[in-house]
TrEMBL record:
The keyword Hydrolase does not apply. It comes from Cocos nucifera. This is (6-4)DNA photolyase. Binds 1 FAD per subunit. Its cofactor is FAD. The record marks 327, 381, 404 as: Electron transfer via tryptophanyl radical. Its EC number is 4.1.99.13. Transmembrane segments: none annotated. Belongs to the DNA photolyase class-1 family. Residues 3-144 form the Photolyase/cryptochrome alpha/beta domain.
Amino acid sequence: MESNAMIWFRKGLRIHDNPALDHARRGSKHLFPVFVLDPHYLDPDPSPSSPGSARSARSALNRIRFLLDCLSDLDATLRTLGSRLLLLRGDPVRVLCTILKDWNIGKLCYEFDTEPYSLARDKQVKDFASISGIEVFSPVSHTLFNPAVVIEKNGGRPPLTYQSFVKLAGKPPTPLTETYSELPPVGNVAGYELPSVPTIEELGYGDLSQEEFSPFRGGEMEALKRLKKVLEDKEWVATFEKPKGDPSAFLKPATTVLSPYLKFGCLSSRYFYQCLHNVYKTVGKHTSPPVSLVGQLLWREFFYTVAFGTPHFDQMIGNKICKQIPWRDDEGLFVAWREGRTGYPWIDAIMIQLKKWGWMHHLARHSVACFLTRGDLFIHWEKGRDVFERLLIDSDWAINNGNWLWLSCSSFFYQYNRIYSPISFGKKYDPDGNYIRHFLPVLKDMPKEYIYEPWTAPRSVQKKANCIIGKDYPKRVVVHDTASKECRKEMAEAYALDRSGDNLASKEISNGLRRKLDDQKASRPSCLKQKENTDQITQH
DNA sequence: CCCTCGTTGTTCCA
DNA sequence: TGGAACAACGAGGG
């Protein structure tokens, strides 16, 4: 039998600490490094009928560009090792099954992936490989721990608190240390046209010269460079405390911005973990989980584990750990939030940073997520989740859904009285509003005493700042004081109902609950809609 | 059953 | 700058 092996890249877009790659190259005469551009991922907008989708789709390019960066970088590195990346397009299952046969592959290696979409996809490929007599090797290397093992240790259920997770998890495995001077050459791919990594323009996105792109570029080289820079400041690493970061810092972000590299697997979490521990060893005194940098890696593990062990983790209905809450369906308010037109500069600036950069600080994400859901607008977390998923360069299925569950007080966190103020929260870090001025240039000349609440600026001040509220910049879509009070009340009611319907999270029951709640709502007016010409206090 | 504790709220007061 | 009030949740552990 010819010893042809294939490494199928999906996440794990790296050479270092890559067990699937290492296993594939061992004892193989030919190595076929493959990546399939999946239309499922490339689709710029999963809901093209939604208003404003054209603009949103253009912005989602940051995420795709980041992926293309990763692929170019991977291809370049493979070429220095006497190999190259074989890029294909189409439905991954169909493509894989075809080339496995055509290229006479005897060994297929790919990193295990816990997302439902990936599990379904990989099962089909694996089944095909099995009946074709192809050896399959699929190691866990995206996360520090194997989520299935942690769940088993906990008696078959995922731990639902961070602390209980950390107790179960133990020590992660050390990363592989293999380095390569060369890899087995690519075999015969006759009959296949294998293009090099396309540009986004070549993917059919048209002229993008006017777009502002994310300052963060993808790839393993970029990841390791960024990691090195982070690790150089040992004091910063050792004293890192997540909740103390400044969400308004954008010239020099207050966090590592390694999340997109971890998401695509340009950076191995196990290698990162080891590096952090080495710094801790040399420095001595250091912060601890949950707030430390290692603590952040463990948060990632926590969400991966719960997401893996929870059916319908990414929805409210049918999700056993998710509070059933009668979120309000208001497309106007939702679009205002998505497009950065809520009239709250702090909120809008964050949403614009999301569109332009595909990244914002963790606490900034909290602010806008709270505002959309339980804090002000009372709109479904799934709608916010979809926006983040498409626009964030680090959007990661388990972590994104987990954090939306958290922020909306649907799971993990239940203290719905703690609401971020869309005015004072940002002001506390950035009293002059420099962050707002940068991402919302229309407000750049607004005096600082009004920049967080521009509707309070006298007409003369608005004129002088060249920014008339209601014309150049929107009026606030809700009044925070009343809207947040209303949200608290709604949450209390929803919690009470959810408790009474405990253990009944089946789809049918939940639908019944929703109907019941909807009926209740129908009898009351919904006044949280945007007012055209007034700034009146909203009631519900 | 009860108790403790939870990465990251806001405002007011001393 | 630090503490208390606000109003109060649930998972996990005993």
